[in-house]
Amino acid sequence: MPSAFRQRSNSRRHTVLGLFITLILCTVLGFAPIPASADPIKLRGSILTPEGSRWTEEVKSAIHKIKSATGGRVDETLYTAGVQGEESEVVEKLKKGDLDIAALSDLGLAYIVPDMQILNLPFFIKNEKESAFLEGKLHDRFVREFRERGFELLFWSPVGPGYLHFDRPIRNVEDMKGVRTWQWKDDPVGKVMIKELPGLIAVPLPLAEVRSALEEDRVDAVYNVPLATVAFQWHPFLKYVLDVPAVVAGGGTVIAHHAWNKISPGDRAIMAEISRNQIVSFRAGIAADSTAAIRGLKKYGVIFEPPSPEALAILENASDRIRKQLAGTLFSKEILAEAERLLAEYRKGLKQ
Fold this sequence. Notes:
Elements: H1 3-29, E1 41-46, H2 54-69, E2 74-79, H3 87-96, E3 101-105, H4 106-110, H5 128-148, E4 151-166, E5 180-184, H6 188-196, E6 201-205, H7 210-215, E7 221-224, H8 226-231, E8 240-256, H9 257-260, H10 265-299, E9 303-305, H11 309-326, H12 333-351
Helix pairs in contact: 2-10, 5-12, 6-11
């Protein structure tokens, strides 16, 4: 056989073998093979928080790093301040292909994977450490459930304790009666929570309308993390905070498979790595900003008051009732049992 022919034959065999190995790796890793000459991809992204907030700035930082690390092959146009609508609308746009990627709260994530709602139950998780521990234990399960529904979960982190903020002091159960409390329009847990707490009146509103409702005296109370209360400029109307976390809020970034499958395996790996690294920066920044927000609220004259023992018992009993009501409908009984078991083990370990 002539030497040139053998070289061409070997080259063809190597090429075929290389393509075969690439296909095997892509199948095993769950990636669709992308041509090396694929055009740059411009993702359409959404986030509820305004410009200048910690959440928005962290997402923008990740976008910049991904664009740089991929040589411009992956970039993103980010729509901020909820211009793409409430989170239920954003998720629908992701599913329809009108958006590609979004930073969502636990509530938004639960529109895709209902079992994520377990992280957003009132008076269930007591602090960020418990929240991070629980999510860490359930992480692989959640990632699998997102994939089954057509999404990749790139990033998740607790963002801090969320409190009930009032325009009046709440020292006992009687003080709650008649208080008009903002309810996130599409939040099923918030709806049940307000119903279960004695005397509170639900006022369902989109997030974008809360400040005007406070200004026009249509709402007396909200629930949110202090950092968001400051970012959305709600604090001038709310001078009292019930000093026990109602929830430990969290959030994450998801990308729909219709966009993910267009990105090369190498660039996907870059995105995943940058997202993992961004969690470290995000958590450190959020912790510092949350402390600063609470300190700022106190300087502004906001009073943090602990509930009376009677009120705390009522809140905890309401939490038990809410979990029992929602298990098997909003989220699975299995995930609730697993979360209760994990938290019990975690708390027991702290006491030993």
